[in-house]
Amino acid sequence: MNTTKKATLLAAIFTLALSLAACAPGLPNDFNQAVANLQNGMSEYLVDNGQMKMMGEINSAPALVDIDQNGTTDLVVGDAYGFIEVLINDSAVGFNIVDSYYLEGHDGPYYFCDEAVPLLIDADGITNDWEMLVGCGDGAVLYVDFNDLVFVPAYSWIGPATSNGATVTVASGYATTAVSDADLDGTPDLVVGAGDGAMAFYKNVGTATEPVIQMEGIGFDFGDRAAIASADLDGNGIDDYVVGNADGEIWACAGPTDNCALVLQTEGANAKPSVGDFNHDGLQDLVIGLSNGSIMAITAVAQP
């Protein structure tokens, strides 16, 4: 990605709310520190029974979430073949995968869509009642409403995410999603990454527990297959953004500003990040899905 190129923005609100697509020097000190913590972090690949964990052998897409609400960070991982696997972790200081299972259909693992990229959310504020967004290779975004913690089509609802009655989709394909208060109005919004590097901003004009989203603008130039995640990296109460791309780069952007920094260049391609404090030390860490199906974990290390 060209670090001096400003993104073309089609809506003024997108400039004010996100300004995601421009990368410039002069980062705020706290954000700069958070980026340095990740740049100098410890990296390792997830293993299962002593072997590198491979998700479908192509294009893994991990999402960090404590899905069983036991205080440890689990993983929900999509793959290029359209399946989603849950990895149960029992370590509070990293990853020790003790169980795994696919989200099931009636006769085996459920096919969501090619290039499935999951994001677990709590859209209705009900404890232990997860919802899920799934970005798809054809550009569509699916919305899944679980019944309890188990996905079974007969007892869960699945369909397209919609905005003003229209399906949420990106024309260039390879949709990924992030939910954050992008415009700082107190309600979570939706940001969708796309195959051409675009970021589509959907403003929530409803409430936190009854969201109603409407398209507000598009920004460009994160590199092909832009994969977005959000988290408060620097602890200032405002969500920041982490973006991977087809070249295996991981970028971080201070929200809502136009300041971005390269966090790392992975050894793979089609990098898909997820952000969370998986070792519970107060610093935001990363997991990154890569084109060969592996998952890289970056443990942030506090820098002096």
Describe the structure.
The chain is mainly β and 304 residues long. It has a single domain, classed as Tachylectin-2, Chain A (5 Propeller), CATH 2.115.10. It is 6% helix and 37% strand. It contains two helices and 24 strands.
Key attributes of the depicted protein:
single chain, 304 residues, mainly beta, Tachylectin-2, Chain A, four-stranded antiparallel beta sheet, globular
Q: How many domain units? A: 1
Q: Biggest sheet, strands in spatial order?
A: 1-24-23-22
Helix-strand makeup class: mainly beta
Principal-axis shape: globular
Outline the fold blueprint:
Blueprint lengths: L11 H6 L11 H11 L2 E4 L1 E2 L2 E2 L8 E5 L8 E5 L5 E6 L7 E6 L14 E5 L9 E5 L5 E5 L11 E4 L1 E2 L2 E2 L8 E5 L8 E5 L5 E6 L8 E7 L7 E5 L8 E5 L4 E5 L6 E6 L6 E5 L8 E5 L5 E5 L5
Antiparallel strand pairs: 1-24, 2-3, 4-5, 5-6, 6-7, 8-9, 9-10, 10-11, 12-13, 14-15, 15-16, 16-17, 18-19, 19-20, 20-21, 22-23, 23-24
Brief rundown of the structure:
The chain has 304 residues and is mainly beta. 6% of the residues lie in helices and 37% in strands. It has helices at 12-17, 29-39, and strands spanning 42-45, 47-48, 51-52, 61-65, 74-78, 84-89, 97-102, 117-121, 131-135, 141-145, 157-160, 162-163, 166-167, 176-180, 189-193, 199-204, 213-219, 227-231, 240-244, 249-253, 260-265, 272-276, 285-289, 295-299.
